[in-house]
Amino acid sequence: MSGLDLVAPEQRGLFIGGTWREAEGGAQFDVLDPADATVITAVADASVNDAVDALDAAVAAQHDWARTPPRQRGEILRGAFELINERADDFAELMSLEMGKPVAEARGEVTYGNEFFRWFSEEAARIHGRWMNNPMGGSRLLTIRKPVGPCFFVTPWNFPLAMGTRKIGPAIAAGCTMVVKPAELTPLTMLALTAVLTEAGLPAGVLNVVPTTRAGEMSKALMADDRLRKVSFTGSTPVGRLLVKQSADQLQRVSMELGGNAPFIVFDDADLDAAVEGAMIAKMRNMGEACTAANRFLVHESVADEFGAKLADRMSGLKVGRGQEAGIDVGPLIEEKAVETVGQLVTDAVQDGAKLLAGGSAPDGPGFFYSPTVLLGVHPESRINTEEIFGPVAPITTFASEEEAVERANATEYGLASYVYTKDLNRTIRMAESLEYGMVGVNTGLLSNPAAPFGGVKASGFGREGGFEGIEEYLETTYVGISAD
Ligand code: NAD
After folding, report:
1. Alpha-carbon distance 360 to 43, whole Å?
2. In this predicted structure, what is the pLDDT of residue 364?
3. Into how many domains does the chain fold?
4. Which of 85, 117, 152, 450 has the fewest Cβ atoms nearer than 10 Å?
5. Range of 399's domain?
């Protein structure tokens, strides 16, 4: 078996009520290889009617699924974890093919994404309520935890496996059924994941998957339905805002994992080599196409030139090319539009006075490549500092004091990931407390960890995925008061 073989031809369809099937009218759409813009294969293109069928199946399965022993739900997740581990290289190849990231990096995502299945297989058995005496006497106060009910999940293209397992894992553990709409640019990994969960024994109707090119119509129809109880979305802030508005009519519970504008702050007391190492990870993981990607490098003015030179040296040494070739560090961006957007942000920054230390151009096609780029002396108000870059570009600005660093770091509507490099413990504590972010990395460029609560504040959304908090998103609390003497 290899890559694409993980998704048999009949599995390039919709998965509804435990059966693979075609979309209404046999509609399909193409999945492209971003390294050369050729068609990899076609998958079914679900209509709104298909999505309603999927919700019907989720609703029908909810009652029995909620009553399945937690250990049984955990064992299914654990079984899927083992199967994915066995096929990790194939998953990595498939993901690299449809999304572009180098195979070695995709392999890292398989480990990371699959760990959500293991973590939540363990959490399933730990769901618990409490028993309390009424402080005033005369009764007992009990709480029961129940699954929220049928969920709708919408995932982005940048981490085709992990963005799915972060939602599917806790939903299965909690006893929720679901309809999943994967990103139209990368549906194959989700279909492969669906096949694995079925093989691991997931009952029909618990997971329903509907790739589509009509995301807006689909979400509107499903969210207007009062049987849907929860929406979890990972993607851009504008779409997140729209979904929160849409959730108002039926008052669905919502989790929103949205965009970021992560500051990467380097103080003058930092170990500069370690900071450059961390910067390479925080910036270049996934070619910069990550919500946690370092978007603004804020470097103390006394070390900015040295940091910039070292970073430019490392970035220039990276090998750009097709993700499935050996020795490639940086794959293509997801689509042509992304290359244009990144190029425009770099051009604007240079016009605003930034100095190009490395890269700054898109190599000739085919494929959607952009060279690893470092900019020094970027104006704080340049668009590249206020918008999500989602590409391999590191813009550096300088600061003179800790107060200025904090003020500038917080001067954005976003609040997902932030990074700080310093050796000073007191400063570490001050920074962790004053950065308005859901996550703060200290002397590390990698925050994502299934055992930790991942999520943002402000326009980066609300809700947490992973950690002990992750399962809470899928549980309701019923309080029972019992009269007793
Ligand atoms: P996007 O918002 O364009 O698309 C995300 C998903 O939403 C896709 O599946 C898309 O089909 C769907 N979608 C689009 N319009 C919709 C609608 N009206 N109703 C329902 N679904 C709709 O984002 P993208 O370009 O795929 O992903 C990149 C964005 O995702 C970036 O902003 C990035 O920061 C963010 N992201 C956030 C996290 C996080 O955990 N916070 C993780 C990864 C990516």
Report:
1. 36
2. 86
3. 2
4. 85
5. 262-411+417-449
Cα dihedral 214, 219, 224, 227 sign? positive
* pLDDT the model gives residue 1: 63
Nearest Cα to Cα of residue 342 among 380, 279, 295, 310: 295
210 lines ligand 1 (CB under 6 A): no
List the CATH number of the domain containing 275: 3.40.309.10
> Domain for residue 455, yes or no?
no
> How many angstroms separate the CA atoms of 241 and 373, rounded?
31
Paired tokens of 423: 């050796």
CA distance 310 to 19: 54
Catalytic residue list contains 291: yes
Is pTM beyond 0.90? Reply is yes
The reply to whether ligand 1 has any atom less than 6 angstroms from the CB of 235 is yes
* Mean pLDDT of the residues in the chain: 98
Catalytic residue list contains 257: yes
Say yes or no: 314 and 328 in one domain: yes
The pLDDT tens digits for 285-337 are 999 999 999 999 999 999 999 999 999 999 999 999 999 999 999 999 999 99
Q: Are residues 367 and 423 in the same domain?
A: yes
pLDDT in tens, 139-197: 999 999 999 999 999 999 999 999 999 999 999 999 999 999 999 999 999 999 999 99
Are residues 421 and 469 both part of a single domain?
no
With respect to residue 99, please indicate whether it lies within any of the assigned structural domains. Answer: yes
* DSSP state letters, 404-458: HHHHHHH-SS--SEEEEE-S-HHHHHHHHHHS-SSEEEES-S----TTS-B--SG
Rounded to whole angstroms, the Cα distance separating 30 from 21 reads 17
